[in-house]
Backbone:
């Protein structure tokens, strides 16, 4: 069955109305994403399917209107960030137009954020600043965990592998450290998908927190 929203165009008035309604309800605390009762109520109110309501919620996350914390709590950003597909960079804009699926918007966003932090990590390794390196590594982990429930594990592992080898010639001496970090990220993802929070916290304590010697 073709989606009612897709039938009416790319970004119809109806879609925008539903999005704003969800944002307002989260702000005043009367709508908690993930609860079937409210999703069903919105679907009935706007005469769309519950699947479309969930899709709209994901779009709001990818457009950076909403923010998902490590604990899974969703809130409205006080200062709304510019959605990636609206940035004035020609390459990003063209890719977003070609790939209209909201999962692709999220993938582009997280790739760019990860690339930026990875570059910083490589520079810190080059300078021998291991304390800041571990801080940057924790930053990457938090970005990934925030988006883990919206990406399949295979895609994430492919991206992590690519990031770990992003510039092998640039810093060959530290490839082994990056490889170890990659293995740690995969382990964290496996536990996150299994909802094993105890194992995640234990792993963070033992591996990702830099101890002052």
Residues:
């Amino acid at each position: 069955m073709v989606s009612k929203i897709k039938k009416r165009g790319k970004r119809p008035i109806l879609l925008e109305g539903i999005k704003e309604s969800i944002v307002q309800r989260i702000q005043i605390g009367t709508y908690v994403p993930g609860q079937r009762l409210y999703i069903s109520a919105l679907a009935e109110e706007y005469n769309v399917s519950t699947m479309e309501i969930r899709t709209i919620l994901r779009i709001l996350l990818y457009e950076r209107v909403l923010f998902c914390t490590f604990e899974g709590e969703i809130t409205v950003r006080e200062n709304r960030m510019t959605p990636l597909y609206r940035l004035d960079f020609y390459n990003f804009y063209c890719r977003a137009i070609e790939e209209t699926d909201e999962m692709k918007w999220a993938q582009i966003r997280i790739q760019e954020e990860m690339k930026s932090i990875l570059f910083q990590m490589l520079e810190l390794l080059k300078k021998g600043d291991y304390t800041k390196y571990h801080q940057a590594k924790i930053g990457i982990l938090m970005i990934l965990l925030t988006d883990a429930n919206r990406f399949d594990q295979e895609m994430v592992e492919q991206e992590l592998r690519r990031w770990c080898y992003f510039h092998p010639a640039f810093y060959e001496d530290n490839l082994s450290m990056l490889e170890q970090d990659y293995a740690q990220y995969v382990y964290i993802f496996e536990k996150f998908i299994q909802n094993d929070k105890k194992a995640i916290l234990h792993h963070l304590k033992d591996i990702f927190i830099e101890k002052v010697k």
Notes: The chain has two domains: 9-81, 90-208.
